[in-house]
Design a protein that fits this description.
Structural class: alpha/beta
Radius of gyration: 18 Å
Number of strands: 13
Number of domains: 1
CATH superfamily: Spore Coat Polysaccharide Biosynthesis Protein SpsA, Chain A
Distance between the termini: 28 Å
Strand content: 25-35%
Number of helices: 7
CATH class: Alpha Beta
CATH architecture: Alpha-Beta Complex
Length: 300
Amino acid sequence: MKPTLLILAAGMGSRYGGLKQIDPMGPAGETILDYSVFDAARAGFGRVVFVIRPDFERDFRERVLSRFTSRIDADCVFQTLDMLPAGFPLPAGRTKPWGTTHAILCGKAAITTPFAMINADDFYGRDSFAVLGRRLATLPVDSSAYCMVGFTLNNTLSDHGTVARGVCQTDDRGFLTDIRELTQVRRTADGAEDDGPGSVTVLTGREPVSMNMWGFTPHVFGQLEGCFRDFLATHGSEQKSECYIPMSVGQLVKSGLATCEVLRTTATWFGATYSEDKAVVQRSIAALVEAGEYPANLWA
């Protein structure tokens, strides 16, 4: 059974200043998510599902999905604010998405195999997909033995502003014991720090972090529905609160409902959080093409 790749692509990227999910980055106009699909296909994934907003479906299908539908089974599902569990109405005035836990739940009807979840605007690298694909291929669909690819914090920071990162703690076997979502992490001379509300968290820069590259089975959907209901019961009336997937996985691990192995990778992560990051991403991809990691035209 080949695993599925679920790509979260519903965000407009307000800090980046445009629809970065379909912004050309490669030498032949490839987007970052083109490289994710390419890497997933050669790592043995058999299907890709995109979570998008209904209002840019036509543009997305024409400019992105059409590139590779003849090479891998691909489709999209929609994320809207009113896709909520029974008993939880959409708060008046709410415009902000509900977060990554909600986005994953929007893919429930389209996924029947173990699956990886990634962001559309992050470049994870060939080895990360290979490592994750091998692990997912061993899981039965009802398993609660989940996993994530861990990256070193210093290798994931932007030089142009703060970023959100899930900082992980693991036991001596490499399994996740706790994860803390920090939303204002920036590079410093000695490592990094998070300028959170009311406090500053000093970091070494060597901490393993989640870049939202997770491995799950369909069993997780029922569990995440419970996490999301708990979130809505407590924070559902707030206008800007979000239910992040690291928080939900941490809740499942702490309650003993799941395990999560942190997988190591030799791949280098990079992404386009800010518009200034685009040139760095383009240079990095060009270097990988020059080194023979990727063809000059992915879909030629």
